[in-house]
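Reopening: structure tokens for the NAP complex, inputs below.
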Amino acid sequence: MKAMRIHEFGGPEVLKMEDIPVPQPAADEALVKVYASSINPVDWKIRGGGYKGKFPTPLPLTLGWDVSGVVEQVGADVKSIKPGDAVYGRPDVTRNGAFAEYIVVKADQLGLKPQNVDHITAAAIPLAGLTAWQGLFDHGQLQAGQKVLIHAASGGVGTFAVQFAKWKGAFVIGTTSEKNKTFLKELGADEVIDYKHEKFEEQLKNVDLVFDTLGGDTQRRSLAVLKNGGRLITTVKPEVLEEAKERNIHVEGYMAQSIPAQLKQIAQLVDDGIVKPVIYKVMKLEEAAEAQKISEEGHVRGKIVLQVV
Ligand SMILES: NC(=O)c1ccc[n+]([C@@H]2O[C@H](COP(=O)([O-])OP(=O)(O)OC[C@H]3O[C@@H](n4cnc5c(N)ncnc54)[C@H](OP(=O)(O)O)[C@@H]3O)[C@@H](O)[C@H]2O)c1
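Re-run output (same inputs, fresh job):
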């Protein structure tokens, strides 16, 4: 089968198309024929060696940790899904990913794909969707009527976060640049702040939750907008723990997990037309390196999907 793999860490040029054997599922795994995958910053961070020592990154490695496809075969112990099921999910980032024609995934990491969208749309969902869901609801404890500030609201994670927070009944404020302002309002944001020309900390106060996907200076400045007892949840490194403690603000970083019950809830929201995955560009599997270059520039609106079939 065709697979986009790396044998060493480095720039986009280390990503190569290869012909490798179709993997065989273990007793608790499914073999999935991949219809589409999508790009996430974790792909190029792993490719660049950025996660060496943080979690296992075995070489050679097939990249791509979003999948939408059809179950081809299941291991002896798998009862939750069967051959022919259309599934989607975020495979384990410490194992071979889905920039390939087939992938083996633990069956308990897959959910049934939303029925009303195609594989290209479904492949945009799992990693970014689960990250937004867990950041807002599991770690952020967001409730209806609360005020949430979502940074990089136009990004892969942010576009899901805006829609989930709105669905929950929160007052949603997003940061992005001028070109995405109208788009974010249409997506559901109540207020949009242009990070290039406005200072969010001068405009906001008494925010219940900041959902941060940027870190650094943005994370530090975010403390000023939070109410006493507020929460700052970050998908990157928590850098303001001491300062936050002094101001009675809870700061937490996390690594998103693959939770099928959440994939099911998200699929329902997509099938009901409440949440619409935002697709920036659809590219071919063989264009994975080019797609990663675009993602690395940091200005994608929504997701880049890689079409495999
Ligand atoms: N911990 C986890 O489990 C986990 C999971 C998923 C992602 N992450 C991490 O979370 C981060 C975000 O991921 P992503 O997929 O959402 O990224 P992304 O899609 O690449 O984000 C791109 C978006 O960020 C916006 N942006 C850039 N600089 C900004 C700024 N200073 N203020 C506001 N918006 C800004 C851009 O808008 P403009 O074009 O308008 O500039 C663009 O729309 C990454 O570092 C990723 O590795 C972690």
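The CA atoms of residues 140 and 302 lie 22 Å apart. The chain has two domains: 2-125+277-307, 131-253. Marking as resolved unless the reporter disagrees.
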